[in-house]
Amino acid sequence: MSRVVITGLGAVTPIGNDVKSFWDGLVNGKNGVDFISYFDHSPFKYKMAAEVKNFDPSSRLDGNTVRRMDLFSQYALYAAQEAMEDSGLENSIDGEDLGVYFGSGVGGFNTFCSEHANFIAGGVRKVSPLFVPKMISNIAAGNIAIRYGATGPCISVTTACATSSSSIGEAYRAVKHGYAKAIICGGSEAAINPFSIAGFGNAQTLSPATDRNAASVPFDKRRDGFVMGEGAGVLILEEYEHALKRGAKIYAEVCGYGSTCDAYHMTAPNPEAKASAKAISEALAGNETDVSKIYLNAHGTGTKLNDKTETLAVKQAFGEEMAKKLHISSTKSMTGHMLGAAGAVEAIASILALKNGIIPPTINYLEPDEECDLNYTPNKAVKADIELALSTSFGFGGHNACLAFKKI
């Protein structure tokens, strides 16, 4: 079996539209949450979102490509191009050796809403012939594969909020077992629209806060729901010897992946946390590391149940006393919850924390909760010599995923 390394990164996020600005935003505790600007939020109880700002797809994508894609695909291809440029892989691999594992939680939700409105207003003839190919959730993976001539395995994963962590984990297994030399993997999401906010809001998952510094507050006792975010994260996973042979820059090695299901409830996590703890333990298997040298980028959505249950899962995976020695943070305090893109963006945060020896903070953390009593790196980034980074993602339907990365 092959070793698997990360040789390229790309990101579009609410706090920066490339990896450098994203990382700078994390380290400096930049808050990407604010009042929704995409539509009139005044009739809504839920008024906050973490929108991507000043996104200019034309800096990487031609106009015709942009017109034929939903925003979630634009984010995906934009971030993929940054990652491929970062890796230098494009002209160093045969298409049949290159794969794409990429997903979205809901796909082209904006296209669905706009075309439905066209249909109601004008009937069948007003529905665009591009409706379906812009909307379907696999199309981001397909568009990336088309752009780079990737004729190897191409898989679109959908595991709700665990989507892009699942994509990365399954890509890791594919490269490890020889199904591809390299894989472009991650996830994207663009679902900040009235219909989506109504749906998530009526499911009582969103924060009703009207103070941007009190809306996305993971692990804080004041937490009352998540804030919807958007964007994309892309990683280039590559077989180690292939990367070495071409002299590629290597960020870190993928060294573990856990995937389980609560099989408990459509939206709520199992309060016993056994399956989510097992996912963490699976990712840790074979990685003997001093707990004080581990960083965990938590799923940390800011909902009452998630943060309490995730804390319990971490304690079960590490043991209660050892868990207290971990460096933990939720970068969703800055990016909001990017749904199907969250896992990939948080994997990038984990990898850069490992590379740079800096733990991003959980910002706006004011009131500790007795049920969330671990070290969540409150408010300020800290320097730490870490050797292993973990990233957890949990999704509706009970999907659990955990990724592990180590220095190389």
Relevant terms:
single chain; 408 residues; alpha/beta; two-stranded antiparallel sheet; 14 helices
Total of helices: 14
Please state the CA-atom Rg, rounded to the nearest Å.
Answer: 20 Å
Q: What is the CA-CA span between the terminal residues?
A: 17 Å
One letter per element, helices H and strands E, the order comes to: EHEEHHEHHHEHEHEHEHEHHEHHEEEE
Mean pLDDT: 97
Shape annotation: globular
Low-pLDDT windows of residues? none
| Count of distinct strands | 14
- How would you name the CATH homologous superfamily of the largest domain? Thiolase/Chalcone synthase
Give the strand order of the largest sheet, numbering strands 1, 2, ... along the chain: 5-4-6-7-1-8-14-13-9-10
Q: What class, by secondary structure content?
A: alpha/beta
